């Protein structure tokens, strides 16, 4: 539990001591929170709603909102009407030896008093708070299996928080907002871990998988010019990084913070569709690629974390080139579009061109194979073939 610089209330101290990160901790916390909330409703049941809040700690109530749907899948189904039984009956279910804690929890979950408290802002568990709790779970000690955790997270994201109004802690039906929460949560967690803990046993891989699913869904179902179109997603990704780097610049250790942000960003970037890094523009009956955002990103951010010096990492270079090839097939003349973009990068983004030349021996085979699959055996674009010719000349 954290050490507070000043005294805190007993409820807050109890909340910080009660963890939800392992199977045993979740079961203990669920029992405690069910008993505490039932007792609070029992004690304040005859009082006005405002006064009831004195008996039900919001921190334990929020923990209950996190735990019950996670531990009891049947609670995820929306009941027709909340149960109107009195608070005395609710408390008796806690003390009755014939009632299991699961039965009592479901009874509480459907009780009218709990539903009323959920309408009060301080008792609402917003999406960012849910993500924070979920990312603290130790995967190896989770009460849920991998498939159960996937099912639960998809339900929480798509059925609970996506449609929930923003003022109630949800995303207001905006899938991009939901993805923004997921992306920032993953980045925040990576930054909060020590460098030696980068592979720590957390649910970060699961949340990253959910982000992949929803980004792919937006990409596949997007309509030209509509919200969620690939151009919109491209802006979303680069705007998110730009905002995070601007936050880093305000910190005391600017260089270290920015470098950590970019290394973390690169790990996430490699898990997302490379095609999203390029905008596809339709003007005057012609479809072209806009790589200005990528060029700006490399020149402003990636150049600051190059290792070895003056060269982008091989995986990042390959991801950018993969995105270029995949995005080009949406244009009328893909090879010409690749050549045009590469010529533009030669003048405006020499770091990417130099990096491609540096790593070309490793990158050429998978990229040419990708191009062959995309274009049914068509020869590679001239500008990329020049990289191969240059490498052969240098190795003579």
TrEMBL record:
One of its GO terms (cellular component) is Fanconi anaemia nuclear complex. Pfam families: FANCA_arcN. InterPro entries: FANCA, FANCA_arcN. One of its GO terms (biological process) is interstrand cross-link repair. Residues 2-76 form the Fanconi anaemia group A protein arcN subdomain domain. It comes from the Eukaryota. PANTHER family: FANCONI ANEMIA GROUP A PROTEIN (PTHR12047:SF2). This is Fanconi anemia, complementation group A. It comes from Nothobranchius pienaari. The lineage of its organism: Eukaryota, Metazoa, Chordata, Craniata, Vertebrata.
